[in-house]
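go over my protein:
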Amino acid sequence: MLGHTGSDNEFLTIPEIIRVAEERLPREVWGFASGGADTETTLRRNRMAMERIALCQRVLVGVPRRDTSTTFLGHRISTPVMLAPVGSLSLFDPDGALAVARVAEQMGTIAFISTVTAPVLEEVAAGVSNPLVFQLYAYGDRDWVKSIVRRVERAGYAALCLTVDTAVYGRRDRDLENRFFPRQSGERPNLAGLPGLSPGTDVNQAALTWEYLSWLRDLTSLPLILKGVMMPEDAVRAVEHGVNAVYVSNHGGRQLDHSPATIEVLPEVARAVAGRAEVLVDSGFQRGTDVVKGLALGARAVLIGKLLVWGLGAAGESGLARILELLRTEIDVAMGLIGVECLEEIGPRVVRPALPNVT
């Protein structure tokens, strides 16, 4: 295998894990894991925007000890990297979301568990003792949503995350050209009793409004996260509707083609929230320096999705754990070189605009 020899616990870089994942995963599953909507402009923009931000190195400031831990909704986590909600996880590991939850527990962080993955949400929660967040797609009517929220509460999840950027399922050329239809593959036990999902049939998800968010806020006392926010005015309304965390995401470039990169809108959203809720971000974050940039521009933590499935695809749970280890190492090195000892010291002063690299 190119760039990798020996056992899976000897991965020394993130790029070699990605290369091994591409080699080991079936072509259509690799395309599903790695692709974006239509022309994939948003997918590329997520990465290009990272290059337009430079980190400012400081010297002689004394950083002999560095702490990469932080908190999210009152829970202490060892790293500012959490695991994003991903559907169809059984394509990458036979234990699906349970494997992801176990890695999160092992590495001292939090996993978001998707509605559209397996095993059933109660089995995932019973398999670990650390906090989990349940990510909700409102595919059923309000009675169905009420039922699943009550199940989430009884199972002991720490928070509920409503995804709102899928009013229409994005067209993904790689999947279409591979004749791969992920919504028709894999188990989705949390959707038992609902009609099968296919593009264009998500009428309940498409009908979501701010009134619906108010209804959901009144339905549960769990901390509420709103995922898919890309405009500061929507962030303000989310806070006014009682959300505890605003989650900036363009779905990894998989929904609206020609959307801005999340790192571009993150500072605007953070300013609009103004400390009234915690801010999360995902989409395009692949290295520890990317995470530092996200923290500098207003995020409490960064979530990984593509890296998550690439890690599983390369080496199962050990591959994902190694991804998190390497990210934490890269964050620690960056902290030492920008002259900070803890994440709270990372702010706008550590970044500046830059020209993207030309290759």
